[in-house]
């Protein structure tokens, strides 16, 4: 495997040069920098802080932590845990802007509330070996570095960096406590322990690797750790980024989807940017590595329109608006088309950005957003964003579009990160409105990341736009995959075809099931053709709007559908009652079930 980040780190470390100070944003003492922020932005951020004045940091009891193992519910604990951090971030940023001291007491309460937590990891992550049962309570003598322990470390490091002078004026023991907790909970475990997400040999990585790595780097470099510590962390972090990238194809496709790109590709950028700054540019050449450039541009390629993205696996179709972080990744990799996409989305959906979970949770992102705000808001977005047709062979993701239809088809296998059994499924939008959809995932619970994962309905192929063959749905695992995949892109036509039988748990060679999708761009229509030797096939289609049938014609919103070779079995309502799904869908969804009556089924959508 290529170890390009590790190589760059080793070259720098062998040079004997000292690491530079990391000063990404002005501290609260730099009044000129904060006073020059746009007045509208200043007022917004102060108002967010004012909404948290007097915030009562909810107590988190041992039984709250234990509840996950006892009930499988993780949301109740997370609401308290994240609520503390969201409020603290708002208070800190408001104090930085105003610097009158009126937010300080609530900030100090928040610092101590977080520092006094027995553990910073979430209960579902409370284990020391990957994919092993969680301990019911944390061992305070041996911290676990999970996503949110690292995120908490970065939060406290940012507070230390931004408000050290103001906090020391109240008592030097506040910042002393921050540094003490960071050393024992973040720095020492990171250097001394090996957690799976750090990478080793060919073990598969996911968004945990850049996300945790980014936040450990922030924790260390914002707190003026000794050079020896900083260099050890830099070396280890560089290797982790290589382990993360080894699982990406050269095409840069994120198999976790657009929503997780914000925790994968964008965290890769933040980590690389920090490392580049503190080394005086030792990693700058890696931004021109084609794989990294493709990782960056992925997010624009999977965008549909407005808030919608093509989604597969656990990803939501409402994956978050683009903004400062995407803009900076485009800037770092020299891709003005990505900068245009991000700036246009940010300018259009500015208010929504402040409600995004990633923005609310990360103080670092809030500061990044605040001090890049004017640059992105003033970026010339008069040009049209041009999304291109593309096929990502590493994942088997096919995307094609014209002026009003946007189509995605997933080939690949059923072994993606956050996998659903969705090989061969397609999604379709017309005029930016969903027609055939991928449901996404419900709120995480104990079953979500367990051996019982595929008992959850949203994970099953029967709740995707896929056939049930001989009463069987697709199976999970790398062996269950599309084969004989072929694609074509021409001026007015795009198409993909594949053999799907291997995605099902049949004896080898028992059946053939060929699916092809042809997009006639000039005719504004898409034709799906399924051909099989099975006599027992039920076709499942998940729709956004309630389908209206007239014989072999279906109206789904503004889309007109004609089908042949099947008869209607049922139209089912899929109630959207889960909170996480309700953030994506504003009403119930529907499942059409058709029974194939001929060896070939054909459906045309216009």
3D structure, described in words:
By secondary structure, the protein is α+β, with helices and mostly antiparallel strands. The protein has two domains: about 5-375, Glycosyltransferase; about 390-605, Beta-galactosidase, Chain A, domain 5 (Distorted Sandwich). The protein is about 40% helix and about 20% strand. It has helices at about 5-15, 30-35, 40-50, 60-70, 75-100, 105-115, 145-170, 170-190, 210-220, 225-245, 260, 265-280, 290-300, 325-330, 335-350, 350-355, 355-360, 365-375, 580, and strands at about 305, 310, 390, 395-400, 405-410, 415, 425-430, 435, 465-470, 475-480, 485-490, 495-500, 515-520, 525-530, 535-545, 550, 555, 560-565, 565-575, 590-595, 600-605. Helix 5 (about 75-100) runs parallel beside helix 7 (about 145-170) and helix 10 packs antiparallel against helix 12.
Number of domains: 2
Kindly state the mean pLDDT as a whole number? 96
Give the termini separation. Answer: 46 Å
The DSSP helix count reads 19
CATH third-level topology of the largest domain:
Glycosyltransferase
Question: Fraction of residues in helices?
Answer: 25-40%
| Fraction in beta strands | 15-25%
Tertiary shape = globular
